[in-house]
Amino acid sequence: MNTIKSIFLAARPKTLPAGIVAVWAGCMIVWKFQHGSPAGLRQWQPVSLNWTLAVYTLLSAVCIQIACNLFNDSLDSDKKADTAKRQGPRRITASGAMSSRAVKIAGCAFLAAAAGFSIPLIVARGWPIIAIGIPSMLCAYCYTGGPYPLAYKGLGELFVLLFFGLIAVMGTVYVQIGFEYNHFFLYVYGAAFIVGMQCGLLSCLLIEINNIRDRKEDATTGKRTLAVRLGDKRARGLALAFLIAPYATLKHTDIFLPGVSWNLCWLAAILCGGFIILKISKTPADKRMNMLLGLASLHLILFLLALTLGSNIM
């Protein structure tokens, strides 16, 4: 297996929609507000979606996520957390396709790329981007590395909710429009908070499916994920909660992005989500859950697509 293919597999492309959708969500919110404001909003300020900054934000976010996945591949192998019993996709380091050192170097290269792509964002918005970017880059490593690896302490879901949900969506909005303390900006960031929670919860579904599948192996290697701590039944219940909660919060989304309406995209998202609900309850915790991981990524995309097309504040 050549190096490029190995790095591509270690990047775990099925999980990348989590980072992509978060940036998309932030840009979608700005796009919604650039032509007008909801009825009842006392103030309105003209805002405009900057596509150049959007592209740099997306590239930086994806590079950080890939770096996180590469470090995870390497460090799990170092910690002997990947064993012959593994049910998930092939791990590049554990399989011997690449050395642990080489995978770590690749992870550092992607972090360097993320830093490079963030320079235009820093020029546009200043030190707050550094305050967001440095912890994000550190956590890409600390997710499975460092003295307190988050994934090994049952904090992986919290990490995903924060960094692939709230911080990513609200940070994208900040890159686009900055911040002023007034009613309009608080309203826009209220929308970013709600949508960020929804993106974060649906991204948590990805990691929960992954951890349910690997629960038995993780329990034998000292990787105390939330699925290991909760047990199979309660972990599956938590996964269902991650899927259902964003729909339960749609009424709050409508406060900030009025006009959330039913359309064919919602039908597709609900059908996909319903199928996941059925399969989460019945699918054994083995490699058959890999299909659910892909479906959860598809559902995340369908959910935000429906939200993008189904709300109109103009």
Task: Give a structural overview.
The chain has 314 residues and is an all-alpha fold. Helices cover 73% and strands 0% of the residues. The chain has helices at residues 3-10, 17-33, 51-78, 92-95, 100-125, 127-142, 156-177, 183-213, 215-221, 226-230, 232-248, 250-256, 264-282, 290-310. The longest helix is centred in the middle third of the chain and has 31 residues, at 183-213. The chain is globular. It starts with a helix and ends with a helix.
Radius of gyration: 20 Å
User: How many helical elements?
Assistant: 14
The SSE string, one letter per element, is HHHHHHHHHHHHHH
The main pleated sheet reads as: none
Relative helix content: over 70%
Mean pLDDT: 88
Percent range for β-strand residues: under 5%
Low-confidence stretches: none
Distance between the termini: 52 Å
Shape: globular
Class by alpha and beta content:
mainly alpha
Number of DSSP strands? 0
What's the helix and strand layout?
Elements: H1 3-10, H2 17-33, H3 51-78, H4 92-95, H5 100-125, H6 127-142, H7 156-177, H8 183-213, H9 215-221, H10 226-230, H11 232-248, H12 250-256, H13 264-282, H14 290-310
Helix pairs in contact: 2-3, 2-7, 2-8, 2-14, 3-5, 3-6, 3-7, 5-6, 6-7, 7-8, 8-11, 8-12, 8-14, 11-13, 13-14
Task: Describe the structure concisely for a colleague.
The protein has helices spanning 3-10, 17-33, 51-78, 92-95, 100-125, 127-142, 156-177, 183-213, 215-221, 226-230, 232-248, 250-256, 264-282, 290-310. By secondary structure, the chain is an all-alpha fold.
